[in-house]
From TrEMBL:
Gene3D superfamilies: SIR2/SIRT2 'Small Domain (3.30.1600.10), TPP-binding domain (3.40.50.1220). This is Deacetylase sirtuin-type domain-containing protein. It comes from the Eukaryota. GO terms for cellular component: mitochondrion. InterPro entries: DHS-like_NAD/FAD-binding_dom, NAD-dep_sirtuin_deacylases, Sirtuin, Sirtuin_cat_small_dom_sf, Ssirtuin_cat_dom. GO terms for molecular function: histone deacetylase activity, NAD-dependent; NAD+ binding. It comes from Filobasidium floriforme.
């Protein structure tokens, strides 16, 4: 079966350029339009986010404003079938992927929410958009949440999983990523040294925690099998991050929950996403088919451009949401409003590296 990387349909002779009727909207009008959209949701709005929301936390988006992969036009991610191949061919894909992720996960784990995360958390706290579906695997929405973990999990669906856990698909054993990192560090002391050497250095990283190390030899990197499987005499089991890889389908549980969240929502506000993956795009289509208002607040092309029933404001979400929230806060007092004022001061902006900065001596890591 041939699996292709999802891309955004860009203008061509058969696909004429999308003419956005809101292309020339001013910032002030955009703020007013988003506020009316949230008011229209009557406290049952849903927010759908993508990688663009986490860029200001130092995590690079896959695609730039033109819809192409930002790091390399020839970029090719690892596919699920390659990751799960139990033979030597699978090792050629899986071992480098874990080695890069071993280093790349550290800055993801340390990343903190940026202002946009806090503004979205504020929308939840004010009851304007109580529920959230995110395509991001960095858990930054969880870190920004104004609620305890149990309530956050109830309100938030990580559509493509999270990097903060790993599991063995054979018996669904789940392990916290920090424990897995410790195991990898004990088996790969030279690579742990590289992690220490890269502290404070900008490392070019993708949203899935895969770091760009350039020309590196990976053959000496050790990736253990599932400890639970070994205890039960099962050899050669494979451990993977709790994220959805290219070519992998989301679970029925996640799919059903995502559909129910759209059914229960009165409107959908999508931010920082190209909607290139069908798992996200079909949620927009579901909302449109149900005649629910849909507004995209994002830069660059999206898969939903020109879709009847979808409005699009091509602006960065953060500055617009900040001013929208100020309209709701103006002159209002009370615990929820005071909490939101506090939340809005907490976001931190960190610029994502734009050029590859390989770890020192990375090229000798496998020697």
């Amino acid at each position: 079966m041939r699996i292709s990387i999802p891309n955004i349909p860009l203008p061509s002779a058969k696909n004429p350029a999308f003419v956005n009727p809101l292309a020339d909207i001013s910032h002030t009008d955009a703020v007013q339009r988003v506020k009316r959209f949230l008011d229209q949701g009557r406290g049952k709005g849903l927010v759908l986010t993508g990688a663009g929301v986490s860029v200001d936390s130092g995590i690079r988006a896959y695609r730039g404003t033109e819809g192409h992969y930002t790091q390399n036009p020839n970029f090719r991610p690892i596919f699920y079938g390659e990751l799960m191949d139990t033979g030597p061919k699978g090792d050629l894909y899986r071992i480098p992927d874990w080695a890069r992720s071993f280093i790349g996960y550290v800055p993801v784990r340390k990343a903190v929410p940026n202002p946009t995360h806090m503004y979205i958390a504020s929308l939840q706290r004010l009851g304007l958009a109580p529920t959230l579906i995110t395509q991001n695997v960095d858990r930054l929405h969880h870190k920004a949440s104004p609620y305890p973990l149990t309530e956050t999990d109830r309100r938030t669906l990580e559509l493509h999983g999270t990097l903060h856990y790993v599991h063995c698909p054979k018996n669904h054993h789940v392990l916290e990523r920090d424990e897995w990192q410790k195991l990898l560090a004990s088996l790969n002391p030279r690579w742990q040294e590289i992690v220490e050497e890269t502290r404070g250095r900008p490392v070019k990283m993708n949203p899935d925690g895969d770091v760009d190390l350039g020309e590196v030899q990976y053959d000496q990197f050790v990736v253990p099998s599932c400890g639970e499987c070994e205890k039960n005499g099962i050899k050669g089991s494979i451990v993977k991050p709790n994220v959805v890889f290219f070519g992998e389908t989301i679970t029925e549980e996640v799919k059903d929950r995502s559909h129910k969240m759209i059914d229960d929502a009165s409107s959908v506000l999508a931010m920082g996403t190209s909607l290139a993956t069908y798992s996200a795009f079909r949620l927009i289509k579901q909302a449109v088919d149900a005649k629910k208002p849909v507004l995209i607040l994002s830069t660059g092309p999206t898969r939903a451009d020109g879709l009847p029933g979808v409005d699009k404001i091509e602006m960065r979400a953060g500055p617009v949401l900040e001013d929208v929230l100020q309209l709701y806060l103006n002159g209002r007092q009370g615990p929820a409003y005071d909490h939101v004022r506090h939340l809005m001061t907490k976001g931190v902006i960190k610029e994502a590296p734009q050029s590859r900065t390989p770890p020192p001596e990375a090229s000798s890591a496998g020697s």
